Amino acid sequence: MKKKGRVLAASVAAFALALGAAACSGKTDEPSTPAAKDAYNAALTAVFNPSDKKGGTIKLAHSSDWDSTDPGDTYYGYSWNFLRLYGRSLVMFKPGPGSESSQLVPDLAEKLGEPSDGGKTWTYKLRAGLKYEDGTAITSKDVKYAVLRSLDKDVFVNGPTYFNDFLALEDGYKGPYKSKGVDTKAIETPDELTIVFHLKTAFGGFDYFAMLPSTVPVPEAKDDGAKYKTHVVSSGPYMFDTYEAEKSFSLKRNPNWDAATDPNRKALPDRYEVQLGVAATDIDNQLISGDLQIDVAGTGVQSATLGKIQGDQELKARADNPSIARLWYTSINPKVAPLDNIECRKAIMYAADRTGYQAAYNGEEAGGAIATSLMPPQVPGAIKDVVWPAGADNKGDLDKAKAALTACGKADGFEVNMAYRSDRPKEQATAESLQQSLGRVGIKLTLKGYPASDYFALYAGKPGFRNGEAKLGMATNGWGADWNDGFGFLSQIVDSRVIRDSGGSSNISVYIPEVDQMIDNALLETDVKKRDALWGQVDKRVMDEAVILPGVWAKALTIRGKGLTNVFVNEAFGMYDYLALGAAQ
Amino acid sequence: MNTVISPRPSAEATSFLELRDLKIHFPTDDGVVKSVDGLSFSLERGKTLGIVGESGSGKSVSSLGILGIYHQQNAKISGEIWLDGQELVSSSREQVRQLRGKRMAMIFQDPLSAMHPYYTVGAQIVEAYRVHNNVSKKVARKHAIDMLGRVGIPQPDRRVDDHPHQFSGGMRQRAMIAMALSCDPELLIADEPTTALDVTVQAQILDLMRDLQREFNSALIIITHDLGVTAELADDVLVMYGGKCIEYGSAEDIFERPEHPYTWGLLGSMPRLDRPVTDRLLPIKGTPPSLINVPSGCAFHPRCAFADRTGGASRRDVPELLSLDSGKHRVRCHLTAPERRQIWQNEIKPNLEGVA
Amino acid sequence: MVNYIIRRLFGGAIMLFAVSIATFLIFFGLPRLAGATPESFAARYVGPRATAEVQAQAAEKLGLNDPLYEQYGRWVKAIFVGADYDYGPAVEHCPAPCFGYSFITKRPVFDDLLDRLPVTASLALGAAVIWLLAGVATGVLSALRRGSLFDRFAMGTALAGVSLPIFFTGTLALSIFSYGRPFDWTARGSSYTPITEDPGMWAYNLILPWITLAFLYAAAYARNTRAGMLETMGEDYIRTARAKGLRERTVVVKHGLRGALTPIITIFGLDLGLLLGGAVLTETTFSLQGIGKFTIEAINKGDFPRIMGVTMLAAFFIVIANLVVDLLYAVVDPRVRLS
Asked: Given this model, what pLDDT does residue B11 score?
């Protein structure tokens, strides 16, 4: 098992109805209930205001800088969402409402990857007739070059490191910049349209890697490293018109994009205009007034606007409440007595007031749904089991908790330290809520705040500190996945092998050898359905161990821009699908 | 601005300058400040009146009042001020402004603070001249140089472009005088014109003023707490105390036959140029009265050594300003004339001369 | 005079030098005391996902392993002779004056500062004109009508202006005047047009930030002017001016205001100098891409080369503003001698 990069907040996210669209659905039927009238959550599971009319301009804004427009240098979900307008990767999530988007479909490639060698080798064949914006042909060599250049983390600091970790690179190979003129056998291009990836270890879910923007082709002749982001050469329906670093950029139509080669993109508007560094409250105001259509980040409105929306029916009808593939949870550390006894951990699982946890995150709409396991429902393979029911009202089952305490030999309760990130008010509220609800059965929490910047590196994430001097029995935690599958969601938080003595890992409580083995098996499985089921089993097994108290599956409240057509939430990103939007009425 | 105009119709004045029962009161949060409380006098052109008194006796306020300048906007003015047949209290502000600087001008105490530090001396004189004379800047500048020359400033054509801080104290006062005289005023009021200067310069300035007064034939009011200055210049002397005139007479009357105990005190505390300097001046006991709570009866009674010789009248009644037999000489005191003369002759005068 | 200016400029250069050393020590020296390593500095350059090996390479490449004085020397050298930076496939020369490259964006700091200066300058100068006129006029009227209804209203408003933060007044102003609820009079946030492109749009886009920023300063200026006027109008030379028979307006403006304005000029120069170094809150509230927003983002991201650059720029403006104020002072007040 290789380590994947630390996932940034709100990277890839998705939504699913509470009924848990666990199955990878093969439904491809067009949404049948068009809704042109404003209604709350109208774009959540169906297409709002469907239209095929072309033309118009969509205006977007972001409250900070874009991490990077370079496909080899970007890690944010909004960026991956938007990048599809000017870049095509080998495969992509199907743009569609509801659970449709959890399905991977070929983009540059004719079809999904073909594994061989037990999942160690993956072969893709490009479509014919692909062209860059300047009319030159896109070849498999360009894809190879794009992936190899993205390996250089000295130049491209933002992007994920999956290819660095999984490709069977020769020792000493450092990418085309530092190993000039050196070829690598890790990626082969037997002909102009074929590309073959060789991995160090088998990985059944390689199609997810092929979905990464790093596979968007880059013509070597036009590549100037860190500066390429200012003039990315388009392979999609739009190309850069203007680019002002950290201020704005705009896209216009790419005349050399051929719809015949691209079954996934409608390319409705004529232009996209993106403003960067706009004050967050101002973005909300402009969305409401119609000056803007999209808040690019897709993380929801500011708290001031939240109140405005909740108190204004007309405004609320223009809002959606998508789920984000992110779990806020509390780690229960079995290395600290008496939590080494599962009965004592069970007592916490039963006694915790889940509604209090949710309240700490400002409730359902702004915070999210009460979580009952690790993977949110929109992640394929998510389980529906409620391993630790917290009573009918979700406020905790005190009888069961007391029984567990007795079984643990601590009938009167016990004392335990709990860590939280002191500069995160919601985590502090979480800790205080737990202190209160666990106190009902005699479990006394002593709260310890640590700075978020060093939380994992020096405190809760450092085994010597957490298990030794500080005796942190509990610690607030949170996790979001790069994409919606068990590997993306689980491997970093439940694999005990990611825990290092030097600290820094997000896994601070799961030490189950059996789970490690289960993860390895899941990695090898190339059948999507079987693999998703395996990840569900991992989730269940971790829950059974009572080392993670799930809190909230995150949601965001977002405003649907005025005058947009074809609006729907893409579950793969947990935000509006930027590829499908139209602006012409 | 609340100017209370005296309702009393009165005959036109005959003197060049005549004040009739002038009152200048300032209402404040603590009470009414009666800075000037019923002041009357007259002055002819070519003559000099000295107004003497301690700080806060109302002498500066009355002179500013003649010019129509009041420190506070809510001053209450009553009485009459006649200047060459025109009554000023009832005139509009604009009318008074047009007279100010032109027919009546003022020389202030401290020329360093009284001249604007940012403008050249010349510019300030030019400004004063051009307000009232419709002439070009060039002509006005020439006039300013003339004026500076006339007040005895060497190389006036060069100094005209200097700033006040580049002048010495005496030169500044000369410039100040030049500024006041620039429009050839008929009434000149000099408020402590020499106080800020050293002694030798004082004499020069006084000479200058005397010369200029003759030359311009203007009426001159010298306001000072320094009887020596008054003795040098004044034809008549008016002694103020607590906003009122307490003794008035010719210079000779005041210096040779003073009748009011306060005047005696002033004389006693006066260092005189014509006498050897002594180490024993005779200061007046106590402090000047508050103009808000003027003492009952004679305002001077708390400080008067002879108050108990009036049989309590000094505490009870405000004494009238009564003429003595000579006619011009008037005094405001409860002591009888013979009593006063006796005290002067027997108790005060020997003492003053004995000091000498 | 020329001598004086040269001497002051020389002094200013020494000041900037001292500022640069202090800033360098704060951002590159102090963290070391707190346990930062060359690798942790390099981590800012190469991102959170770089391996330890990549971090170490970057630290070596950027010279972070060298002693501090050598690093500082390189920084100074780059200002005078430029420096070379590695973009990946090629190395590029950053010509003098080179204030280094951003940790995050890998763009030359100096170019970005030059790019953003017009925004901040437009904002600061426009607002300065408004606040100077409005503040001084209000202050003068208040002083002349001391205790009147106008005075009380103006000073109450000024108190509000001084105490209300820009992000409050600015956000409020935007929401009232820019989004059609109720008014749609002014430009929405993040609007900026260079004056060279369209002076009309330039002014239209900036009018709300100008007024918001000016409100804060005008308030202070009104209070200062009022106090100054009250003091000046009690001066002997005002009495003299009146005694000359000058019209009241001449007395107030030529004699009173002239005297009261000197301290205002001093504050004005320094305020303007400070603002040119970035109007952080206004730029953030109105999403204007000026020096202030640049600064706050650099600080948030720990982008030290940018912080260094922006500190030097701000210090430069303050030094210049000080000099200009002193020169102006000598022009305004003839008693002041430059030496």
From this structure: 67
Task: Sort out which chain C residues have CB atoms less than 8 A from B108's CB and list them.
Answer: 236, 239-240, 243
Q: Can you tell me the distance from the alpha carbon of C330 to that of B94, in angstroms, rounded to the nearest whole number?
A: 36
Two tokens, residue C24: 């360098």
Q: Which residue has the higher pLDDT, A295 or C263?
A: A295
Residue B258 and residue B245: Cα distance in Å, rounded? 14
Tell me the ipTM for this assembly: 0.85
Contact C245 B118 (CB under 8 A): no
Helix (H) or strand (E) holding B65: helix B59-67
Q: Which residues of chain B have pLDDT under 50?
A: 1-9, 277, 279, 355-356
Q: How many CA atoms lie within 13 A of B192 on its CB side?
A: 17
**Quick check: C329 pLDDT over 80?**
yes
Nearest C-alpha neighbor of B44 from the set B88, B80, B82, B12? B82
pLDDT band, residue A452 (cuts 50/70/90)? confident
d(CA A294, CA A568): 12
Residue C213's SS3 state is: helix
Banded model confidence at residue A314, pLDDT cuts 50, 70, 90: very high
Three-class SS state of A121 = strand
Nearest to C28 by CA among C305, C310, C316: C305
Q: How many CA atoms lie within 13 A of C175 on its CB side?
A: 17
Q: Cα separation of A69 and A272, whole Å?
A: 14
Of A366, A362, A381, A385, the closest CA to residue A550 belongs to A385
Name the one residue in this structure whose structure tokens are 């009248």.
B313
Looking at residue A24, its pLDDT comes to 37
Cβ–Cβ gap C247/B179 under 8 Å: no
Four-residue CA torsion sign, B74, B75, B79, B84: negative
Q: Strand, coil or helix: what is B195?
A: coil
Q: Could you read off the pLDDT of A215-271 as tens digits, one per residue?
A: 999 999 999 988 999 999 999 999 999 999 889 999 999 999 999 999 999 999 999
Pinpoint the alpha helices (H) of chain C: 2-24, 30-33, 38-46, 52-61, 68-81, 109-144, 149-163, 166-177, 199-232, 236-243, 248-250, 258-276, 280-285, 291-301, 304-332
pTM of the model: 0.80
Residue A454, SS3?
helix
At A144 the pLDDT is 97
Task: Give the number of A-C residue pairs with CB atoms closer than 8 Å.
Answer: 109
Specify the DSSP element, H or E, that contains A116: strand A114-116
Q: How close A265 gets to chain C, by Cα (Å)?
A: 31
Query: In angstroms, what CA-CA distances link A65 with A232, A246, A249, A277, C105?
Result: 17, 5, 11, 6, 10
CA dist B19 and B65 (Å) reads 11
Q: Helical H runs in A101-197?
A: 140-149, 162-166, 175-178
Q: Which of C148, C236, C239, C244 would you mutate first to test chain B, the one with the most B CBs within 10 A?
A: C244
Closest CA in chain B for residue C232:
B116
Q: Tokens 């009042």 identify what position?
A: B65
Closest CA to A547 of A335, A368, A376: A335
Q: What's the average model confidence in pLDDT over A554-569? A: 94
Amino acid of residue C299: I
Q: Could you write out the DSSP letters of every residue in B226-286?
A: -HHHHHHH-SEEEEEETTEEEEEEEHHHHHHS--SHHHHHHHHT---TTS---S---PPSS
Among B73, B118, B166, most C C-beta atoms within 10 A, so best to mutate, is B118
Of C50, C107, C287, nearest to A278 by CB-CB distance is C287
Query: Which residue do the tokens 């002051």 mark?
Result: C8
Q: Which amino acid, one-letter code, is at A106?
A: P
